[in-house]
Amino acid sequence: MAQAAFEEVVEDFEFLDDWEDRYRMVIEMGKAMEPLPDALKVAATKVEGCASQVWLHPQIADGVYHFQGESDAMIVRGLIALLHRLYDGLPLAEVTAVDARAELGRLGLNEHLSAQRSNGLRAMIERIREQAAAAS
Fold first, then answer.
1. What are the extents of the domains in the chain?
2. Which residue of 21, 36, 111, 132 is surrounded by the most CB atoms within 10 Å?
């Protein structure tokens, strides 16, 4: 079961009939995110395997996983916002237990992302899982 913030997205997606509206919603979610400070856009936070520039910065406190992220591509920034709703605030042990592919599949994303974006999304999920596992 996903976090409440992600469940809200799932519910919102159910009311949107076409994919243009859903993409717009994802893009708006990305625009609403706090920008990642330039000082955190470094090689250590950059996610390899993404066609666009992507940075994920973990913030782990008291066994809870938090992260900030950013991308230079609007739709990818929106995907980061979705991942934020899925993972941010989870206990470290639960981060690796999340089946992100299944959860994102509930939004229909698996069928509507290009191969490049799908590869980038997998790379972001893997980075999040690695960060949480390393901090455990």
1. 4-135
2. 132
pTM for the whole thing? 0.93
Tell me the pLDDT tens digit for each residue of 44-82: 999 998 889 999 999 999 999 999 999 999 999 999 999
Tokens 């929106």 correspond to what residue?
Answer: 78
- Find the radius of gyration of the CA atoms of the chain: 14
| One-letter amino acid for residue 8 of the chain | E
User: Positive or negative CA dihedral for 88, 93, 94, 100?
Assistant: positive
**Catalytic machinery residues:** 50
- In the chain, DSSP assigns E strands to 54-61, 64-71, 90-91
Please provide the CATH number assigned to the domain covering 4-135.
3.90.1010.10
d(CA 66, CA 117): 23
Give the separation between CA 71 and CA 117, rounded to whole angstroms.
Answer: 12
User: Are 54 and 46 in contact, with CB atoms under 8 Å apart?
Assistant: yes
- Within 13 Å, how many C-alpha atoms sit on residue 69's CB side? 31
